[in-house]
Amino acid sequence: xxxxxxxxxxxxxxxxxxxxxxxxxxxxxxxDWTVSYRPGSRFxxxxxxxxxxxxxxxxxxxxxxxxxxxxxxxxxxxxxxxNPQRSLDMIEEFVDSILEKGKFPLGMGGEHLxxxxxxxAMYKKYPDLAIIHMDAHTDLRVDYExxxxxxxxxxxxxxxxxxPENVFSFGIRSGMKEEFEWAKENGMHISxxxxxxxxxxxxxxxxxxxxxxxxxxxxxxxAHAPGTGTVDAGxxxxxxxxxxxxxxxxxxxxxxxxxxxxxxxxxxxSEQTANxxxxxxxxxxxxxxx
Length: 290
Ligand SMILES: [Mn+2]
Known about the structure:
Blueprint: E1 24-29, H1 44-51, E2 58-59, E3 64-65, E4 71-76, H2 84-100, E5 104-109, H3 115-125, E6 130-134, H4 154-162, E7 167-172, H5 177-185, E8 189-192, H6 196-202, E9 210-216, H7 238-250, E10 254-261, H8 272-288
Helix pairs in contact: 1-8, 2-3, 3-4, 7-8
Bound molecules: manganese (II) ion.
Manganese (II) ion (MN) binds next to loops.
Cofactor: Mn(2+)
Enzyme class: hydrolase
EC number: 3.5.3.11
């Protein structure tokens, strides 16, 4: 299926009515079939759109309005329940169709495994791709209880595809000892616990390179984002995450695509996670789509 054929119900605030003249395509990947702990992220994209109505369209951080970015919300990809492989294939084909038209893909998850087919599509177009990954978890497992298609494996798959030296993880505070060792032995960068300061040091090294940025909402402390499947104490504040998005926006890296994953509304009783996510999406659009 192509991005311009997707069902479109409620859309993100200020989405353009047509995709043709859009620079960026926003889309949902409502999949949570492989999570090991609490499911529910399949409902994330829809809720992020719904609460976006409460956002201002102007960003005082970036002095830019959503009106200045031409983006089209293509809705959710109609992924088949319980079929991870076919879902991943559909996501890859969908993103291929966005890249074919020269547009910027901005995805909303869904569990983190959805980033894997997106990265595959990005790498076909950008052979010198680098990845910036913000997350509580390493996501570097080979498999989970024998299952390689798991939400704990996407960064390992991505690192093996594009080369571990091209993957930069930030905010990591959870994972198996073997995962950290694998990263170290293979030259993959992991910044434990912090995001903004280490990011400032890495960004100049990525200048002018195409970069895919994948943000797992659980990089935030559970106090800032309780509405996610696998919460992990000791995370960063939403202020630091916003500052990190802005730091990337002001750097010389060429963000070529991005996603925000793992928002699970069922655990989000105050709706602060969905509201935070929709503000993050606004800042990603305003900062990274140029
Ligand atoms: Mn993750």
